[in-house]
Give the backbone structure.
Amino acid sequence: MTCSIGTDVQHAAAILRDGGLVAFATETVYGLGADALNPQSVARVFEAKQRPKFDPLIVHVAELAQLDSLVKQVPPMAEQLAAAFWPGPLTMVLEKESIVPDLVTAGLTTVAVRIPAHPLALDLLRKANIPVAAPSANPFGRISPTTAAHVAEQLGDEIDYILDGGPSQVGVESTVLQLTADAPLLLRPGGLALEDIEAVIGPVSIPNPDARPELTAQHSPGRLPKHYAPRTPLVIQNIDSMDVKAGTRIGLLAFSTPSDVSDFTAVEVLSADGNLNEAATHFFAALRRLDAAGVDQIIAEPFPDEGLGRALNDRLKRAAQK
Ligand code: AMP
Ligand code: MG
């Protein structure tokens, strides 16, 4: 690991303005940031992560006013959502202005934007005074980072500075919502619950990936089946219905405190009393520890399909893909 870790926002902002790469804390996961309006800097993000160019990036800003130069218009629904949830774990996909490089949006006519809620991220965005394109700060397809140390382990050689804001409080990526048509479309469940969004703007459509995979891919090109993956094979299973083969070393990713853990070599409990928000906060770090525990297989309990449980089930499903 060669890059330095610290809390020097001024330094981090100067690096971004000079075209460099800064990983920074947000409330969702750590982001790998570059000047969104500088295609050469953005290209370095794709290289560092080995991310395919068809997977567009989210642009981060500090103020609502910065949106005007990036998007053609802010529809009334987007205004309502911004008032209710920004800064916060909601990304909105809107029609882009030509100033946004094609590399950022993977050639789409839309751009994804959000205002993150972490005070250090906001300070960085204000001091840099540029929109910052930032995917999660991990190699493509792997487990997302929720601490500065996670970033350093995986990408330390590729980036110029890591802005350390402590462990991410939300713990899963932002909810991505497309707002370019009459009906809002949920492209990715994430750190803001669908129920909270619907309470403000009414019903949101959810594309069914099983029925029309090509439609989902067209709307959100980065939603690949395999993602967030540990190196250890992961299986989703209710532990009550489990049948463990003798001699197999199994790691358990448990939602709440299990009644019997005698079958497992390693156990991670995400929330002792089954709180979905707390489980999300600990999710990726726990998955990393199990991946490092030297087990043959990770068994993960499914989450209730409500609140942040939708985002957690989505991440589990992709982590379990072969
Ligand atoms: P990440 O930066 O890894 O959190 O992923 C961002 C995801 O947001 C991408 O993989 C896409 O699925 C989605 N996204 C970003 N920009 C757009 C866009 N312009 N249109 C649709 N989806 C987008
Ligand atoms: Mg990611």
Observations:
- The CA atoms of residues 193 and 308 lie 6 Å apart.
